[in-house]
Design brief:
It is a single chain. By secondary structure, this protein is an alpha+beta fold. It folds into two domains: 121 residues, no CATH class; 40 residues. It is 19% helix and 24% strand. It is built from five helices and seven strands, in the order αβααββαββαββ. The strands form two sheets. A five-stranded antiparallel sheet has the order 1-3-2-4-5. Strands 6-7 form a two-stranded antiparallel sheet. A hairpin with a 2-residue loop joins strand 4 and strand 5. The longest helix has 10 residues. The protein is globular, with a radius of gyration of 16 Å.
């Protein structure tokens, strides 16, 4: 079952420079990951990477300082965030993974899509995000917020933030 398709909600100027056909490297199988990781330097592998899970359920990876919208080629995603990898018992596993993407602001409930994409890529993984980021849009000033320490108050205007994810509600 596919999850929610998150649309890009970040700055329009970042999406405007996304090249058609661009995007992160598709990792749809263990062989894809093996090729990709062999092309990385030890210095690159020491840092987290930008990731998205495309609407087709496939993992896409890009260097950490890449924008998520560029990694996704401007398209909607099932999840987005940052991810790191490590070697354990002779195989590659996910070290850390978060849903930290201020361009897509995915809900923590997007984890099943990430888990399925990682399983497809043959990567050992945790049972959930190792760092969960809670995003909300303020109903008053419409700004996007990261909720810290369960304090559901807008940092821009002081208004109350909803308990449920509301960053990009369905269009009616």
């Amino acid at each position: 079952m596919r999850g929610w398709n998150y649309r890009y909600v970040g700055p329009a100027e970042l999406k405007a420079v996304v090249r058609p056909g661009g995007g992160g490297r598709r990792i749809g199988s263990p062989a894809d990951f093996d090729i990709w990781v062999a092309e990385r330097s030890p210095a690159e592998l020491a840092e987290p990477f930008t990731f998205v899970v495309g609407a087709d359920g496939v993992l896409l990876l890009a260097p950490r300082r890449s924008e998520h919208v560029a990694c996704a080629g401007g398209r909607p995603v099932l999840s987005a965030g940052e991810i790191s990898f490590a070697r354990q018992a002779g195989r590659w596993v996910v070290g850390d993974v978060s849903n930290h993407s201020t361009g897509y602001c995915p809900d923590v409930g997007s984890w099943p899509s990430v888990a399925q994409a990682l399983d497809r890529a043959g990567l050992g993984r945790p049972s959930g995000f190792t760092h969960e980021v809670v995003f909300r849009r303020c109903p008053g000033c419409q700004e996007h917020n990261i909720v810290r320490e369960s304090d559901f108050v807008c940092v821009f205007c002081g208004g109350d933030l909803p308990e449920k994810w509301n960053v990009d509600p369905p269009v009616r």
